[in-house]
Amino acid sequence: MKFKLLVLFIFVFSVSVFPQEMNYEIETYLEDTAIEKSSSEINARVIIKNKAEETLLTSRLQRLYFHFSKCPIETVCKKSGDIYTASAQIPFKKIREDKSFEFTVNLADLFWMEGSISHFSAENKKNFSVIPKDNIYFYAGTKTLDGYKKKNKGPLYDSNGKLIRVVVKKTPIYKEINSNVVDVTLN
Known about the structure:
1 helix
């Protein structure tokens, strides 16, 4: 019994101390690239491919963000209305090395808002029709924790001027993983 607890403790400790390698790809596909904005069913097929040498837990990924953009993916959209974003929870799955996981999201069921991946709203109303017809580039993406940037915020002293500690601020650094781009027609 003690041996089993020790093995469990070592496993939990190693998972929390040694972060999981996050090497994956996202692909998106639409049943039809000519989309009726008033449709109640606009299915997007999403495939997450694990490229790491260990099992990928989808629970370690953040939400999946879907984008309809007026600008190609390598161009930064700067004008109001150039990009509309909605998000969906990624279903839990353990994806083994060199395997993939496929699921479908109904884009008509999501709440769409103007803006990019940095914005998020938990509002729960369907509003696909707000996306402008000029936003013809569809893709999905997620943000993955890529590490931390440490910044020395300086020493902290008590009221007598005695050094208490040096304050170091850890700021998370995220990398964006985007899917392929699907050219669409919005009617």
